[in-house]
Amino acid sequence: MEKNSKIYVSGHRGMVGSAIVRELQRQGYGNIVTRTHAELDLCRQEQVEKFFVQEKPEYVFMAAAKVGGIMANQSDMADFMYENMILEMNVIHSAWKNGCKKLEFLGSSCIYPRLAPQPMPESCLLTSELEKTNEAYALAKISGLKYCEYLNRQYGTDYISVMPTNLYGPNDNYHAEHSHVLPAFIRRFHEAKEAGLKEVVCWGDGSPLREFLYVDDLAELCVFLMNHYSGNEAVNAGTGRETTIKQLAEMVARIVGYEGRIRWDTAKPNGTPRKLLDVSKATQLGWTYRTELEEGIKLAYQDFLNNGSRKER
What we know:
By secondary structure, the chain is of the alpha/beta class. Helices cover 42% and strands 15% of the residues.
């Protein structure tokens, strides 16, 4: 990308999209195109086609998505599948039709099988069944990744995919029911501290292992890959390090300052037992994460204190 290249970042108000915009600006890219949902509904094919005809961005970061935690993924399966498949197909197809030089599709580590080898290499995609609690979202993301691959194979495009692990950081969603585990913990323990509660109940037994990547570290990788990587296979984005959900809850409680008891509701699902990405491919390309988990949670908590009320959507 040249510094004056026209770059479209979809989902620029979300956690990932806003981080990519910050990183592009930090590196001196000055021709960034964005649209709010009110200005451009990505689920409306006609609107998306009109936007691409008018703007003709040279590079596209496909960061827009309908996202949520385990409860939302289970209760809104049809919505997660439909909205994600529609919006990603609209953007990718219109980018191709209008001569986009390069597109980067943002997926998720949930695309990999429930019982994939650990750590999970990019090559394990579609080798066995998915985790049922987020199957609909995973299928939509796999479709986007594969569409990029098929365009490359059939039409010679240069479309790439990045598969991040669990993300957190500035501009996260802190909704009580529809957020991911780390921002949900931040809100829950903060409110428990404010209310003087003696106990906080968390889902499952705390045993699942999870990996967490600070979103600004992901954004740095996204810009790096746009400039330095081409290929049909996705690139995993993570730290290569993991923690149990129990350890995560205790760390968040300590950082927030909650001193009560944590009780685990084992009647609720744990989700996938382990999700650690093999990040050797990104490492070999020359990237590694910067932000350690405790430091990142402190930054995320500060963001919640500053902006959390408007992100509890």
